[in-house]
Write a structure and sequence with these properties.
Layout lengths: L1 E8 L1 H4 L11 H15 L2 E9 L9 H11 L5 E4 L2 H4 L3 H14 L3 E4 L4 E2 L6 H31 L12 E3 L7 E3 L1 H15 L4 H10 L5 H8 L16 H8 L8 E3 L2 E3 L7 E3 L6 E3 L9 H14 L15 E3 L7 E5 L2 E5 L2 H4 L8 E3 H19 L2 H48 L4 H49 L7 H7 E6 L11 E5 L2
Parallel strand pairs: 1-2, 1-3, 3-4, 12-16
Antiparallel strand pairs: 4-5, 6-7, 8-11, 9-10, 13-14, 14-15, 16-17
Helix pairs in contact: 5-6, 7-11, 8-10, 14-15
Length: 517
């Protein structure tokens, strides 16, 4: 038997007080598993060790390497201290321990919690372990969120990166101190704007003087920063200046919680409403004094253009330069509106510059929209689908009602398993009784979950058919005879547009429209 040993240590393990806890060090885990292998007389294929990684992290480097080697059948058994060292997610337990490992002919053993895929009747216990670990992850996530929210409300800085102009206080965790060199640039930006310079002019002046933008400054200073994904990431841009001028952090107010995670299983964050942001005043030294701040905010308010006056806001934040990816800005000249790439104006030779009249782009979009509608939509077909979708509505609602009933039953069985586990831990019921209850509850829960899964698939298929008919009907009714574009249409129909520079020979401007439908 060729054995692969997997060890994992997370931040939570480092905080344990008992130095005798086997999970506290990678070395203790290795020693235990090596002894187990020697006692069995097996061969050691290799040791895979992830340090400082959570059990829900699917991007652990050594774990990923272990899975790749397992798929190639390089060993016969995977050894871990416990099943939770391998993963805390029930989904990953089912996928690998119960799914792919048996397919690949690989045995899994969790030494301490007796998880062993070769032992008959052991699967339910492993599933229960996975379920308990899943609860642990969810509870831990909620606890962490609660702690972070509490610290934010107390005015502590929670984040990997300090705002440009500040740096983390090495002697006081969660506090910010002024970075004098960067703060001088921040004060200059506010002063120039208060003196009448526009955002683009300020960006151009900083670039001409070779002053690195916030990201480049942090890179040069060896300060932790978020790597950029733009070819012109070292340049100051219009929006960088604009964001700086309205950031309350520069007057000593800690503003946090602008984004929140979707769930404990995802690292993806989404913007939160402004009213949900956490603001705490006077948490750190201000870079901008109150008089200058108030003056600039009044100027920003007065200089702000209405969002949709004439053609000014028609393509606002929708059009990008095809060469550098910069969001193109609207300008007015001789009574006409144009879209231009700001990078060309903020730095020399940074971009060859995209440029197009708004009216010309509007006509291109309108022509392509009409072409798409004429090519892909048939009025008779759409009307037929609309009638069909009306019949689907009743079926969808009936299925949703059934699903709700089954979902309630799943919640009841989940609670029953959890309650029985707690009873076992308290000694109210025996291990055998717990396993018997769990088998019954889990079996019925699995059966109902299968029904719910089938219902979800059927509902999704019916809704897709219905929505497809409705969306096509709406497009035909709203836009088949439209004569001109407006901002609402642009927002609804277009994801973004890329524009290039006019060809001197053909006189055509390269335009590519990315539709939302």
């Amino acid at each position: 038997m060729r054995a692969a040993i997997y060890c994992r240590l997370s931040e939570e393990d480092r905080n344990k007080h008992s130095c005798t806890d086997d999970s506290e060090s990678i070395q203790n885990q290795k020693s235990m598993l090596l002894q187990y292998v020697m006692d069995k007389g097996w061969d050691i294929f290799g040791i895979y060790s992830d340090d400082d990684y959570a059990g829900a992290d699917r991007n652990r480097p050594e774990w990923t390497r272990l899975i790749a080697d397992a798929e190639q059948r390089k060993f016969d058994v995977v050894l871990c201290k416990t099943q939770s060292r391998f993963t805390r997610e029930l989904e990953m337990v089912e996928k690998y321990i119960h799914g792919l490992f048996p397919k690949w002919g690989i045995r899994f053993i969790g030494v301490v919690d007796n998880a062993d895929t070769e032992v008959k009747g052991n699967k339910k216990s492993r599933q229960i372990n996975g379920l308990v670990n899943e609860w642990y992850l969810e509870d831990m996530s909620e606890n962490i969120k609660s702690v972070l929210t509490s610290r934010r409300l107390q005015g502590f800085h929670i984040g990997a990166f300090a705002l440009y102009g500040y740096k983390k206080d090495p002697d006081n965790k969660g506090r910010l101190i002024i970075d004098d060199e960067a703060a001088a640039v921040v004060r200059e930006v506010f002063t120039m704007y208060a003196s009448g310079y526009g955002r683009t002019a300020i960006a151009r002046m900083l670039n001409d003087r070779g002053i690195p933008n916030p990201t480049e400054y942090k890179r040069l200073k060896g300060i932790r920063y978020k790597p950029p994904d733009s070819k012109t990431a070292t340049l100051w841009k219009y929006f960088a200046i604009s964001d700086m001028l309205t950031n309350e952090m520069y007057i000593g107010t800690m503003v946090q919680g602008k984004y929140g995670s979707i769930s404990y299983k995802s690292k993806e964050n989404r913007p939160r409403p402004k009213e949900d942001w956490i603001r705490v005043e006077s948490t750190h030294e201000a870079i901008i004094d109150r008089d200058l701040w108030d003056n600039v905010q009044e100027m920003v308010r007065k200089n702000a253009k209405p969002f949709n006056i004439g053609k000014i806001g028609l393509f606002a934040k929708t059009v990008r330069c095809i060469y550098c990816g910069y969001t193109m800005r609207s300008i007015k000249s001789h009574g006409r509106y144009y879209l231009t790439c700001g990078t060309k104006h903020t730095a020399k030779d940074a971009c060859i510059g995209s440029f197009i009249p708004v009216s010309e782009l509007a006509q291109i979009v309108l022509d392509e929209l009409r072409s798409l509608l004429n090519e892909h939509l048939d009025l008779d077909e759409v009307e037929h689908r609309v009638k069909f979708s009306n019949n689907l509505n009743e079926r969808v609602e009936k299925l949703k009602t059934d699903r709700s009933v089954y979902q309630s039953k799943i919640t009841e069985y989940t609670k029953a398993v959890k309650d029985s586990y707690l009873d076992k831990a308290k000694g109210i019921i025996s291990e055998a009784e717990f396993l018997e209850y769990s088998r019954d509850f889990s079996g019925e829960k699995s059966r109902i979950e299968s029904i719910v899964k089938d219902l979800d698939a059927e509902i999704a298929a019916l809704e897709c058919k219905r929505d497809n008919a409705n969306s096509k009907r709406d497009l035909v009714e709203q836009y088949a005879t439209v004569e001109s574009l407006d901002r609402i249409m642009v927002e609804k129909l277009i994801d973004h547009i890329t524009v290039g520079k006019r060809d001197k020979t053909t006189r055509q401007v390269p335009v590519k429209i990315y539709w939302s439908f």
